[in-house]
Amino acid sequence: MHYRGRIAPSPTGYLHLGHARTFLIAADRAKPGTLILRNEDLDTARSRPEFVQAMIEDLHWLGIHWQEGPQPSGKDTGPHAPYAQSQRRSPYAAAFQQLRQAGAIYPCTCSRRDLQGAVRAPHAEDDDEPLYPGTCRHRSPLTEAPTAWRFRVPDGETLHFEDALQGPQHFTAGTDFGDFLVMRRDGVPSYQLACVVDDAAMAITEVVRGRDLLRSTARQMLLIRALGLSQPTYAHADLYLDEHGNRLAKRDNARSIRTLRQSGLSPQQVRDLALS
Ligand code: GLU
Predict the structure, then answer these.
(1) Which of 92, 93, 94, 117 pairs with 194 at a CA distance of 20 to 30 A?
(2) Which atom of ligand 1 is nearest to the CA of 199?
(3) Which atom of ligand 1 is nearest to the CA of 22?
């Protein structure tokens, strides 16, 4: 089977050593195969065009090249264009309708405040989404009012997968993660929904991403099943940690690829740092 991998940054800041690490591993696994750059710009409040340009430039400088997606020339190349999520709304809407008709999702009117007291999954240090307490589970999917929508997880079912980098994984619905958002109240699809729809549409065979997303993979496996899509294999890379053992935040500009480059480091030096 022809390998198709993807790197999927969100243009909400400059890429840092943590991104470099995951994307270098993804690019390496995609050789020889096809690598796709997907611009995950659905969060319109935080995404900025200058960060899209910067991520394309920084990735190229680092020596990462992709066959499909937005290119430094500004052109979107490949059979699955557009590769920016903000321009791919209709497949998300179709998937949403399919889930709605299947009764797999329900409208949720809870505010952030309502969820403040909800418990968090035990040991979920990498995934801080609280377990949804199920307040709106009984709501009818026939509503026409603008609301958020959640996927109803099969409580007690354990999802298993073999991770190419982390070994065997298992997460139990309702305990390790709860009912999760598929659509925001403003009509923007969630990361989980958009990711699953795009990975299938772009015929991705292996998903490489940071290990902070292991639980999201379990959520996405449920969406894939509910939508009747084919499931890729998974490889979750260890995160880049700073000298205190903490992961990097987007605002950590000292370790952005840009800053390191401006300080005179070569692409090879930044690659070595990222993979150290
Ligand atoms: N846009 C997501 C992120 O930057 C992508 C995660 C993924 O690769 O699925 O975390």
Answers:
(1) 117
(2) 9
(3) 8
Mean pLDDT, rounded, of the chain: 94
Q: What is the DSSP letter of 250?
A: T
Output the CA 219–ligand 1 centroid distance in Å. 14
User: In angstroms, what is the span from residue 191 Cα to ligand 1's centroid?
Assistant: 8
Tell me if 248 sits within 8 A of 255, measured CB to CB. Answer: yes
State if residue 195 touches ligand 1 by the CB under 6 angstroms criterion: yes
pTM assigned to the model: 0.95
Three-state SS at 241: strand
Q: CB within 8 A of 20, min separation 6: which ones?
A: 62, 240, 257, 270, 271, 274
pLDDT at site 74? 86
The mean per-residue pLDDT over the stretch 163-177 comes to 97
In order of their start, the domains of the chain are 4-90+194-275 (3.40.50.620), 94-183 (3.90.800.10)
Nearest CA to ligand 1 atom 10: 9
Find the 9 Cα to ligand 1 centroid distance in Å: 6
